[in-house]
Amino acid sequence: MKKSVADVIGLDWRCDIAHARANLGERTVQGNVDPTVLLGPQEGIQRAVHECMAAAGPTGHILNVGDGVTPNIPEENVAYFVHLATQQKQSHSQEQSDLAVAAS
């Protein structure tokens, strides 16, 4: 994958995102929350989103489920996943802004 000319590499949920990031360098990665997490309680969804984003690092990551959303996943859980992703993105943007201000 490292020799690929693709701008973004999509990762299946079974792929260790931290390992992939280490091997791909600055390339943007997409993924890779286990889609079955969306069948469970919100606490599990929240934990999976947090773990994925922490492992992926602060930049060059598009949060997504690693193998698509299946028809049996409750829509409210998908909405919660999107809500968490948006919150995490906003939180990260604020942290970056704070760091830039502190550095100046």
Can you put this structure into words, describing what you see?
The protein is of the alpha/beta class. The protein has one domain. Helix content is 50%, strand content 13%. It contains three helices and three strands; from the N terminus they run βαβαβα. It has helices spanning 17-24, 42-56, 75-103; strands spanning 8-10, 28-33, 61-65. It has a three-stranded parallel sheet. β2, α2 (42-56) and β3 form a beta-alpha-beta unit. It is globular, with a radius of gyration of 15 Å. The chain starts with 7 loop residues before the first strand and ends with a helix. The model is unreliable at 96-102 (pLDDT under 50).
In summary, what is this structure?
The protein is α/β, with parallel strands linked by helices and about 100 residues long.
Mean pLDDT: 84
> What does the main sheet amount to?
3 strands, parallel
What fraction strand? 5-15%
Number of strands: 3
Summarize the amount of helix as a percent range.
40-55%
Structurally, how many domains make up the residues?
A: 1
pLDDT below 50 for ≥5 consecutive residues: which ranges? 96-102
Order of helices and strands: EHEHEH
Give the distance, in angstroms, between the N- and C-terminal Cα atoms.
38 Å
SSE topology sketch:
Layout: E1 8-10, H1 17-24, E2 28-33, H2 42-56, E3 61-65, H3 75-103
Parallel strand pairs: 1-2, 2-3
Helix pairs in contact: 2-3
Keywords:
104 residues; 3-stranded parallel sheet; 3 helices; alpha/beta; disordered C terminus
